[in-house]
From TrEMBL:
The lineage of its organism: Bacteria, Bacillati, Actinomycetota, Actinomycetes, Kineosporiales. InterPro entries: Epimerase_deHydtase (IPR001509), NAD(P)-bd_dom_sf (IPR036291), NAD(P)-dependent_oxidoreduct (IPR051783). Signal peptide: none annotated. This is NAD-dependent epimerase/dehydratase family protein. It holds the Pfam family Epimerase. Residues 5-211 form the NAD-dependent epimerase/dehydratase domain. Gene3D superfamilies: NAD(P)-binding Rossmann-like Domain.
Amino acid sequence: MRVFTTGASGWIGSHTVDELLAHGHRVLGLARSDDSAAALAAKGAEVLRGDLDDLDALRRGAESTDGTVHLANKHDFAHPEVSNAAERAAVQTIGEVLAGSDRPLLIASGVAGFGVRRPVVETDVNPAVGPVSVRGGSERLALDFAERGVRALAARFAPTVHGTGDHGFVAALVAAARARGASGHVGDGGHRWAAVHVTDAARAVRLAVEGAPAGSVLHVAAEEGVPTRDIATAVGRGLGLPVDAVDPARAVEELGWIGSFFGLDLSATSERTRALLDWRPSGPTLAADLAGGSYFG
């Protein structure tokens, strides 16, 4: 397959490009900078210059390939309405291009906001609907295209997609600990976060694009839930800092934007996904990655 990939030079996207190329697929990667374009070309991927706001580029990429993996997101946590609007416009644009083609469209989603007091499962319906909702309601929007002849797939990634080079949530926790001189967990730290190594995540994406049926909801989570207290303790150990409890009312003030997430239970199961894709996560655990020291260089 020739796969159009947004976010191709990002954390999950760059590993997904490697995974696709390693298994004989061709990749057309969206690149918004010269550095990103050069990195993709060096891997042997084709390059399409543009970004999430360039809807014409998104149309060209989707039209000219056998399927689309949409992993890009602005991640503007200070102005979520900007990220939500861009995400919805991108999914709408790509979906319209692919309508009636039976080509795959895999979009990135998450496990936050379900409001259940248990691990989220693949059959839980995402409550985010409409342009002003989380991610612009892109998961539900994408899955609607399954009824319009698109092999639409929603990949709900664990909040911690970890590994060497990670600059996501765990890296933000490390930065917050350095800044305040202590590694904090919110409240008693009993909240749990699902986790997956980035190479396992990339493999799940590739397997889904190759064969998951239209309308599939996939949970890209190898560990169902790691207590946030354990994550904070590992960060403190790695930095040689004390570990303390942060008042939930002061989580954002103390930890920055990551505080609004670290007090949430973001656990998720992936049994259905493993069975559907024959996906067998084998990468290091979050604890192993933290113990390995790559986050503390």
